[in-house]
Amino acid sequence: MNGSAPASSSSTSPRTSPAEPPRLLAAALAGLLAGVAAKAADESGLAWAADLGSYPALWVLAVAVLGRAAPSARAAATRSAVFFAVMSVAYYAWAALVLGFGWSRLLGAWLVLSLTAVPAVAVAVHRATRRDGPLPGALLAGAAGIVLGGGAVLGDAAAHPVQAGADVLVAAVLVAVLPRRARTRLWALAFLAPATWLAARGLDLLQALLG
């Protein structure tokens, strides 16, 4: 016995942290503002603004940042799911209630993604940015591949130069800035090309399913 008090996990565990509800509320508020801003950009008449809200780059970046900043995989999953679900509802609610476009069946699909693919990406980024080796690098390359494979770089960059630049910038952040270890960055760069090809094929399939 050394007389020291046993460490308590009730106040520091991510499961019971009193800071988590406010963080979830902040994620929900950010999602609300992002959804409204994205729909407003769609209707702004500015092609580059509509592109930023429609292509995946900014949304992947938002989910990745939430994942990296979270103190645990559980927090990464819940914060990203709340952000993306609220963002999706806000986007389509603004279109239906403010702009009079009516409700879209695509909202249901995006809510499903908010509870499945989105938290999976956030958890993958959370873990990959803290570890070394080829698997973390491949996970980060996958996130960057979604950006490039679904962006303007492989489409029509000349017609969407702002979006193409944003795609490249976000991909660079994902593979070179978010990882905490140099070897993970190198592995991410090595896997980037095949990950982009796979992501492009997967996104084509998703678009076909969503109609």
TrEMBL record:
Residues 1-20 are annotated as: Disordered. The keyword Oxidoreductase does not apply. Keywords: Membrane, Transmembrane, Transmembrane helix. The chain crosses the membrane at residues 48-69, 81-101, 107-125, 137-155, 161-179, 186-203. This is Uncharacterized protein. It comes from Geodermatophilus aquaeductus.
